[in-house]
Write a structure and sequence with these properties.
alpha+beta, 8-stranded mixed sheet, 5-stranded mixed sheet, 16% helix, binds ligand MTE
Length: 305
């Protein structure tokens, strides 16, 4: 029976949004367990049910936690794992404000408590041409947005990373305009695939992966997945984003994975899955097109890259 098979759902099993949503409600009601004892410990096990996931083999945890981009801790792939230990991920608050009736500041543990956490095994395609398969644990961003009661002026969502140069050595240099910023259109932000991740491989997020809270949008290039978020604002105008500010010709607002639109300095047609030797073809929307292509109907994706 479909619903009992839910833990092994692949992308191909999901034929339309409505079906997916109904399944999720059933799965959540039957098996959602929330969080056990995250507070105070970065290594606490999380309790979760399985949400929409790829059946592809996950990238080894060692690679997911040692090959990172987190420029606040340095520009080399091994810098974040080496330097991010300095980040104090507790206490931590997230301000959710802007065009909404009920703006609020959430303590991270209160925010997570009572949420039905799900494991979502997603592909992640970095704009640099490599990819991983990562078992995240988190909750849909749409639940958090609904909690603050958005008004009709909430057309976009703006995200900000912590600004704390004393713990983030990269912020003492002008690699990017700090704090790191990202943004989504409201329909992207409230799409069921869009996840606020608080863990990976069943444990709380390691600092180098964006503790205690980061965004995951699996159909977009990895840099949209802003880490260590302190503020989420509902806004009327398209917000500025860190990489677009830094190189507007190279990094657009949408940044949907698109093998047909090359980066000005390299092809996006193929990717190297970390741990594999041969390059594989990159899929439009990173293989999530059947879920998200409708969001961009009628848009020129060459112009809106
Ligand atoms: N978020 C912040 N705050 N700073 C960053 O430098 N790098 C981005 C994104 N989020 C980045 C960030 C990039 S380029 C990628 S590919 C992903 O994080 C990498 O996530 P991972 O290290 O967990 O694989």
């Amino acid at each position: 029976m479909l619903i009992r098979n839910a833990p092994d759902l692949t992308d191909n099993d999901v034929t339309d949004h409505g079906l997916y949503l109904r399944r999720r409600q059933v799965i959540g009601g039957a098996a959602g367990l929330g969080l056990a004892g995250l507070a105070g410990s970065a290594s606490a096990r999380l309790t979760y049910s399985r949400g929409l996931s790829t059946s592809e083999k996950a990238t080894p945890k060692k690679d997911v936690t040692s090959y990172n981009n987190f420029y606040e801790f340095g520009a080399n792939k091994d810098d974040p794992a080496r330097n991010a230990g300095a980040l104090k991920a507790r206490p931590w608050t997230v301000r959710v404000d802007g065009a909404c009736e009920a703006p609020a500041t959430f303590g991270i543990d209160d925010l997570i408590k009572g949420k039905k956490l799900e494991e979502r095994i997603y592909r992640m395609r970095c704009v640099e041409g490599w990819s991983m398969v990562i078992p995240w644990v988190g909750f849909p961003l749409k639940d958090l947005i609904a909690a603050v009661k958005p008004t009709s002026k909430a057309r976009f969502v703006a995200f900000q990373t912590l600004m704390r140069p004393s713990e983030m050595p990269g912020q003492r240099r002008n690699i990017l305009q700090w704090p790191y910023r990202e943004g989504l259109r409201i329909d992207e932000a409230t799409h069921p695939l869009t996840l606020m991740a608080v863990g990976l491989y069943g444990d709380a997020l390691p600092n180098q992966n964006g503790a205690p809270l980061r965004l995951v949008t699996p159909w977009k290039y990895g840099f949209k997945g802003i880490k260590s978020i302190v503020r989420i604002s509902l806004v009327e105008k398209m917000p500025a984003t860190a990489w677009n500010l830094s190189a507007p010709r190279e990094y657009g607002f949408y940044s949907n994975v698109n093998p047909a639109v090359d980066h000005p300095r390299w092809s996006q047609a193929t990717e190297r899955r970390i741990g594999e030797f041969r390059r594989r073809e990159t899929l439009p929307f990173n293989g999530y097109g059947q879920h998200v292509a409708d969001l961009y109907r009628g848009m020129d994706l060459r112009k809106n890259f």
